């Protein structure tokens, strides 16, 4: 459970971090997030941060973890890209979870369900949606697209080329999984 105060504080923190990238069109992304419910969306239906505001909290955890892993690894990812990748890696999730209510109007035990009317793939869909609003660098595209690593069935086919050309992808994978498995 995340309190309303924490949801508000997380929104302020994420907006400040995104603005600090000084990336052209970042206001379009922030506007889209506010319009579509990014700051109140859960991060999953039952696995991690399956509560109102869970997506924003998870994204901040990934940001803090990725920032630390990136610095430990000699900072191969530029600072502004760390912010964009971590805070936006699950961008599509704000569109796919809906509140699940019982017939009497009360919230169900697992209060969210997944309804994806445009199943383009998790990483792919986030990149596609973001590219309509902001220009991502190839490194940012790769890190968001492949952040699920082996959990994405098509990762194995391209594993060698991804790890050779964009080893930074694995930092995002580790940051995401350290956050969801150990911090949440
Ligand atoms: Fe994630």
Concise description?
This protein is mainly α and 184 residues long. It is 55% helix and 7% strand. A two-stranded antiparallel ribbon has the order 1-2.
How would you describe what is shown here?
This protein has a two-stranded antiparallel sheet with strand order 1-2. The protein has eight helices and two strands. Helix 3 (54-72) packs across helix 8 and helix 6 (138-145) packs across helix 8 (168-183). It has 184 residues and is mainly alpha-helical. The protein has one domain. The radius of gyration is 16 Å and the shape is globular. Fe (ii) ion binds at residues 58, 62, 89-90, 176.
Characteristic terms for this protein:
8 helices, about 180 residues, 2 strands, binds fe (ii) ion, two-stranded antiparallel sheet
